[in-house]
Amino acid sequence: MVFGQLGGKKVVCLQGRFHPYEHSMDLALCTLPVRVMHQLGVKVMIVSNAAGGINTVLRHGDLMLIKDHIFLPGLAGFSPLVGCNDPRFGARFVSVHDAYDKQLRQLAIDVGRRNNMTLYEGVYVMSGGPQYESPAEVSLFKTVGADALGMSTCHEVTVARQCGIKVLGFSLITNIANLDADQSVEVSHEEVLDIAKQAGERASRFVSDIIQELTI
Ligand SMILES: O=P(O)(O)O[C@H]1O[C@H](CO)[C@@H](O)[C@H]1O
């Protein structure tokens, strides 16, 4: 965790995240930093990820605001909220009808527009990973309404919402997910890192501008 000030606000940044595939799908462990941030008094969490584009309008390097998510491991019982519930972090049963705050999304859209940025809005689906998805799996996700896919974020957002932290999320499209096994191309982590690196500065500026205008 890095503590500091940005745009006149106190911020804490995570220099990385714990992925469920790195920790035997122990989602409670992977979301510990979010609970720590709650205990520190954090009210807004801005989360980002690298993701494969499913919606055909998305291109390498695009930014997609997350409007909603499909938490696939969570639906299968791999939720950070299973087990004993500690009431310091919120209720046993949690509504995620407003996982990604509408007001914060509007603020991001306004900031993007002022900076002439093309900003898409869509649904993020989290798969368990670490294998990238087969074309048939990507087609399944497309059918159920996903626009981009990755292996993170949903468990963190679920815990944040349980704690009452408002969330803004965006995906950086680092690759185009394969939809057709006959025309598929290899997805590589090097490509993901490379595109993420190229977009780093633009994405950081965008986040700083949003933070500057936060009124929460
Ligand atoms: O979601 P983040 O952590 O940005 O990373 C994405 O990129 C990695 C795969 O290349 C996976 O960890 C996937 O989730």
What would CATH call the class? Alpha Beta
Bound molecules: 1-O-phosphono-alpha-D-ribofuranose
Q: Helices and strands: which structural class?
A: alpha/beta
> What summary fits the major beta sheet?
5 strands, mixed, barrel
Give the proportion of residues in helices.
25-40%
GO molecular function: purine-nucleoside phosphorylase activity
Family: Belongs to the PNP/MTAP phosphorylase family.
Protein name: Purine nucleoside phosphorylase
Enzyme class: transferase
Task: Give the arrangement of secondary structure elements.
Blueprint (H helix, E strand, L loop, with lengths): L1 E5 L2 E5 L13 H4 L1 H8 L4 E10 L9 E9 H4 L26 H13 L4 E8 L8 H9 L4 E3 L3 H10 L2 E11 L12 H25 L3
Parallel strand pairs: 3-7, 4-5, 5-6
Antiparallel strand pairs: 1-2, 3-6, 4-7
Helix pairs in contact: 4-7
The chain binds 1-O-phosphono-alpha-D-ribofuranose.
The site of 1-O-phosphono-alpha-D-ribofuranose has 10 residues, from strand 3 and helix 7.
Description:
Pathway: Purine metabolism; purine nucleoside salvage. The protein is an alpha/beta fold and 216 residues long. It has a single domain (2-213), classed as Rossmann fold (3-Layer(aba) Sandwich). It has 7 helices and 7 strands; from the N terminus they run E-E-H-H-E-E-H-H-E-H-E-H-E-H. It has a 5-stranded mixed beta barrel. It has a two-stranded antiparallel sheet with strand order 1-2. The two termini are 22 Å apart. The mean pLDDT is 96. The structure holds 1-O-phosphono-alpha-D-ribofuranose. 1-O-phosphono-alpha-D-ribofuranose (R1P) binds at residues 17, 19, 49-50, 129, 150-152, 189, 192.
